[in-house]
What we know:
By secondary structure, the chain is an alpha/beta fold. It contains 13 helices and 27 strands. It has helices spanning 106-117, 128-131, 147-159, 190-199, 217-224, 254-271, 298-309, 347-356, 372-377, 383-394, 405-408, 411-441, 449-452, and strands at residues 10-21, 28-32, 46-49, 62-69, 73-76, 82-86, 89-101, 134-136, 166-169, 174-176, 179-182, 203-208, 211-212, 239-241, 244-248, 275-278, 314-317, 320-321, 330-331, 362-363, 400-401, 446-447, 463-465, 469-471, 481-493, 498-508, 516-520.
Amino acid sequence: MTLSPRPAVEPLLAGDELELPVEAGERWWGGSVDDGLSMPYGRRPFARDLAGPREPAGPSNQSAPVLLSTRGRVVWSERPFAFAFGDGVLRLSGRGIEVSRAGGTLREAFLSASRRFFPPSGRAPARRLFSGPQYSTWIEHPYTPTQEGVLRFARDLLEAGLPPGAVLIDDLWAEDYGTWRFDRARFPDPAAMVARLHEWGCSVMLWVVPFVSPDSAAFRELEGRGLLLRDASGETAIRRWWNGFSATLDLTHPGAVEWITSRLDALVEEIGVDGFKFDAGDVRDYRADDRTARPAEPVDLCEAWARVGLRYPYNEFRACWRMGGRPLVQRLQDKPALWGPDGIGSLIPEMLAQGLIGHAFVCPDMIGGGEIGSVSAQEATDQEFFVRYAQVAALAPIMQFSVLPTRVLDEKHLAAVREALAVREALLPRILGLADHAAATGEPIVRPMAYHAPGLDDVTDQFFLGPDLVVAPVLAQGAAEREVVLPEGRWRADDGTVTEGPARITVTCDLSRLPRFERLGRPTVRAG
């Protein structure tokens, strides 16, 4: 596939307070991934302030100071801004906001914004993060990982016929927060454990956060060196997060960056781990009046944590600010095990939002849901839900398991998950080619229908995987069929039927089917 010539940028408006009439039929994307279900904007009133936390919990995913229009318009600022849609007007408030036009389509708007504001780095995350699933210990071993448990977890997956992948050892593998050494009571020989996982074809990643437990040796060292965030009074800031109270690294200080990377590097060099799951660092963890080594707002501290991850090809983030175009895996926030918009229905809209703010290398959370309270509260796993979730993840750039499929699924549902993995394996050359394409051009891997089919602006329960494959997963409980919208062209379905578009069709979908439609008569993006 070749990119269209770079469109000329037509400056429209610039300022701190702007009002922009919304054109007839115009839709907008961008801002915060948390708001994916409200995208595209323009259908109804909507408002968001990107500058800070929202109640009650604050933002917990990726965000960026960009809005993109299906009519080719781009809103950008170097700083967070507030925006509101209503009465046919887009109202913008912030600092140094710029509005430009870059053609007449969503794709032209994205390409212009990407080239100007979050250009591609030319690199992708580690290839093995795409070629095999991620396996997080979070749900099976919450707060209790052990060397024996991790090896058993991986062995059970492999013996069940799942392919080797990246094993993510989650919370409390270390002695304490900020003391990034294995707890030898639970991991007596971590180097041997990592070596064994490598022998089995698995990579190994460790969960880390920018927090430091008070009254620890690390805390005393860091506070003495002035490397911890201070509050408005000048005292070391102690913040409550989901697992207690901790101090936070001041990552505007080069010494704090050197301190954390030296410890992570030691785990790579001495233990053999491959990389890290960088959790927390949310905008909500910081305050506008915090004192830092260098001037910074909460969004800058979130961004500083993400910059630490650029050092490691094996990485994952759940919260991020303005890091589009970088080789970082971006996971959706922990999802509850629910049908509907609060759970599985949010996956596609939020992945689309991730891609359109520049994060191409996306992961739709843990299959079956990663919100541990919701998953643990289930008396028994909803096996149909697990299968349908796996089908969404199978054709996402990155897929991640945490619940052991063999523990919660009967043979019928386990066979359907294996079929989803087989679909991914068959399409892996396409996914890897699109990852390379994203690294070179910035283009999303998962794309809205409107990206290649102007006019399909409000279709957000299916997606393009690259330019030539429409994927329409089943998202409704008990569904035996679903509607699929196809744009102009000839489309061959996974069952071999051919449809002439544009068309709106109904397809049957038994438990094992992941509906997908390949464009005929046009070359696809391939690896290399």
